[in-house]
Amino acid sequence: MSTLEARYRALLRVYPRAWRAANEEAVLGTLLDVADGEGRLSPSARETIALLGNGLATRLGASLPAPVRDGVATVALATGAALSLVFFLAHGWAPWAARDPMVVVRTFGPFVNPGVLLYAAWLIALALFLFGWRRAARIALAASVATAIGLVAASHVTGGWAGLSSTTIGFLGLLALLGLGGTPVAPRMTLVGFGVATAALAGVYAGLGVFGARYHGDHFFWLVPAGISNLGIALVLALLLASALLVARNDTAAAVVVIASLPWAAAWAVGSLTSRGEEGMALLVATAVCASLLIGATTLRRAAAVAAADPSH
Description:
The protein has three domains: 3-62, no CATH class; 67-218, no CATH class; 226-313. Helix content is 76%, strand content 0%. The protein contains 14 helices and no strands. The longest helix is centred in the C-terminal third of the chain and has 31 residues, at 279-309.
């Protein structure tokens, strides 16, 4: 086996075993022929990204029923776009705080920080989906992941900056991955979800005085409205909702609630690791997370069984 073939086979291991048994040799032959024609001795960057992305998507599709993936993608797109719009207004542009010294020091063109690039990718993805250009929307969502990685790299190169917090970047990155795992449902439902999430967050921010003369960075969101105590309560409520849906035998909706809560659970975990005290809440949410995993496993098995029994799924 040549080194090139070994590298391609290593990349193809991302795909599920059943897929590899049926398709690996044919795909490998095509990849080797293309590489030979181009005189390459290693996989190209484009091939590597495509194989890894498609492999992960195929593996996800094999483990989760399509209705669950599509429901999670709907929630992820609506949530990520709503956060991006409000964060852009409050933490990226903030024209009402133009005289705040923090805004004067932290400059990115006419904006406060380069986080607007990430927000723009999300809002473009939503707009493209609403206009029916689903493939282009997925490309924009994937671009948001690349932008997030670029922002993290830029932060390391500059030794720290006034850009987005790592929690925001990681959270939006996780949402993008969930969004890429399925196809959001009807644009009208996605738009409604986006509108409700935007109105709720804007209302909370208005009540907390974020739209005032003082500038607030995006870390404010994770310290106050989405602090570990509030997130803990929200996660427990999500667990109760998933439990109720499970009792009602709405397995797909229960699985969507559990999986869509994972980015929030990750944000809570990050906040807990960087804070002190509140051991009681930490124990409560840890219990909720463990229970969510059990509920998630149960709902996924049942939803998968339903999907397998119904050919329309």
